[in-house]
Amino acid sequence: MISALAAAGLALSTIVIPPAVDPPPPGQITIDVVTVNGSGCRLGTAAVAVSPDNKAFTVTYSEYLAQVGPQAKPTDFRKNCQLNLKVNVPGGFTYGIAQADYRGFADLQRGAKGTTKASYYFQGMSDTDQRSKTFNGGISDNWQVTHQTPVASIIYHPCGERRNFNVNTELRVEKGTSDPKKTSFMTMDSTDVSFSTLYHFAWKKCPK
């Protein structure tokens, strides 16, 4: 189990936070990574940090890369990751996810394409609608995909229950008609917090 570290210096000032039902609870929220599964996030290569204002948390990957090309293995075209997280919140509060921002870098040759897929859900509850975005080559640039949920449609962790939060993501790169001698790749990884996956909390007080 890996305890989440406080996120000092997260670059959140430029991100618009959707309105929450209630303000964030006082005190620091922590997140424990219970299990990590997937070809894109070997144990020890995914870290979680909570923002100081308790409005968001960031998942940062260090080895999340899908690729095709002369140096790639046959299985490298698709990478995935499932995180099982325990979110520790003060008593009397519950949370949902109002918005998720997925970021990375894509270097795709002309004729190739890359796809990112993502979903999240509370353990034992229905999965969210899986959303995907496809990027066509040729590009060599940072990418970002934002999934925003209307306030009225946010699903909250049931008050008084213990349900971990699951995050599923996938990267896929297809060679298509691109030059087989050239490599195309897509990442969801970085040592820079600007290349990370950010989830925005929506908070609610539990009934007494």
UniProtKB/TrEMBL annotation:
Record keyword Iron-sulfur present: no
Signal peptide span: 1-20
Keywords for the protein's UniProt record, in alphabetical order: Signal
Superkingdom in the source lineage: Bacteria
Protein name (Swiss-Prot/TrEMBL): DUF4360 domain-containing protein
Pfam families: DUF4360 (PF14273)
